[in-house]
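REVIEWER CHECKLIST
Item 1: Sequence provided? yes
Item 2: Single chain? yes
Item 3: Sequence as submitted:
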Amino acid sequence: MSLRTLNIAPRAFLGFALIGGLMLFLGIFALNQMSKIRAATERITQDTIPSIKSVDDFTQLSLRLRVQAYRLLLNRDPEEQQKTLDSISQRNQKIDETRARYQQLISSPEEKAAYDQYLELLSHHRQLEAQLIELSHNNQLESMQQLLNTELMASAEKINALLNQLVEINTQYSQAADQDAAEQYTTAFNLVVSLLVLASALTLLFAWRLIRSITLPIANALHAAETIAEGNLTQPITVDGRDEAGRLLQAMLTMQEKLRDTLQRISASAGQLASAAEELNSVTDESARGLTQQNNEIEQAATAVNEMTSAVEEVARNAVSTSEASQNATQSAGDGRDMVQETVAAIERMTGDVQSTASLIGDLANESRDIGKVLDVIRGLADQTNLLALNAAIEAARAGEAGRGFAVVADEVRALAHRTQQSTSEIERMIGSIQSGTEHAVDSMRNSTERAESTLNIARGAGLSLDTINSAIIEINERNLVIASAAEEQAQVAIARGAGLSLDTINSAIIEINERNLVIASAAEEQAQVAREVDRNLVNIRDLSVQSTTGANQTRSASSELSGLAVDLNNLVTRFQLYPPPLASCSSPLVRGLEPGVAALGAAGAVHGRAAKSAA
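Item 4: Structure as written out by the authors:
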């Protein structure tokens, strides 16, 4: 497993945990070896040395027993004899105590066999001592001496030899334990040193790997950052891990790609901006030419206004002639007013007659409605009769032959009721037709009355219009169009009612006036409208010309700024190396395709920069 698959914190923890594990293993191993050495030492101190000391006690006690045996022979004083016997007894008791301790220290079969022989010899020796004591009690000195020099001496020598053998056994055992401890110490020392060397080597190796796994990717990231800071965005960044450094390299790779993409877009935008600035310069030139053309058109419009002023003066002269003709029409207008008044009186009388006729027709309509009510009563009687005839026919059918005549009468009555219903319906249709005609007549009379009233109002209006004509002729120059319209309406009313020869004369005069006035008024109005329209157009053109001039200046300034901005953007982009250098080994079609575009962009930026400076 590669260390780069782990983060730095788990990686460092793993390294220190490994070192700690090695130290723990080394400590446990050293403690184990020390416990073994300690066990060997304890065998020497707690087993071998006490055994040797016990054997030495056996030897000393045996020697003292031999001395006491000789004292028992040589000193025959009873008190001394008793002391010697007590001393022998005490020595034997101490031997028994020492023997009890020694039995617990026996650690090998060889030692156990030698000790068993010692016990046999000790038992035989004590029997000899008992014989010696018995001989001493009997004062058999020669026998005591013989026993001491022969059997007791031989037994003591055998015991000494066996004790020496036990000492040798324990000495060999002590030497073996010491040899084991030395060997264990040597083994432990060698193993601990080896483990220390191995742990140190592993620690150094892991530390080297850990440091290298951290410093190398950080160095790569630092190199990539320095390369990007220098403006070179073509240097490849290799990502070979999932730790923090790997993620840092991945983030720098993503940043490099996004920065390269952003700069490429800025480069393309700078080219488009330069093209737009050039097109804006062209549009500004076109606007300047348009302003020149507008100024020329303004001058032509001013000339047209002067000509229009002359035409208006001509119209004014024609209006003076029209005023003279309108004065001649004043007399005829007075005569027309009298005829109109007579016409109004005749229309009022006709209106009264029409209203009386309408009232009579309304009464007739009401009477026809009453007849309809009577017909409703007759229809109801016919229905009742029909029902009675039906009931009679039913009863006759129930009576059989006896009611046949009554059934015939019921049929006749039912037929009569049916004919009555038909007649009633026919009369009702006729009454309905009369009512409909009456209503149409009433509506026609009402319409005639309304028309008469309308005509009366028109006639009255004609009289008022004639009065207005008399006062309006004085201001004919200002109100020509109003007078012409009123005169035309009066002429139409007079023709419709046949007002007389005097009104025809007025009509002819007013029509002539109307025609002239219409011509004059139309011409004057058209000239005035044209003059006002031309004046407004001139004002608008002047304002637009001022605005266009201001806009052209602003556009030219903006175009210069855009050109400068395009140059600045191009200079900023040229600080970065977006593509690998054109080496012979570089065969990427994408790179070869983009290099001319970058070169063209730089040339375009330089051209637009010079254009911006010249425009400024």
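Item 5: Key structural point noted by reviewer: Residues 493-503, 583-616 have pLDDT under 50 and may be disordered.
Item 6: Recommendation: ____
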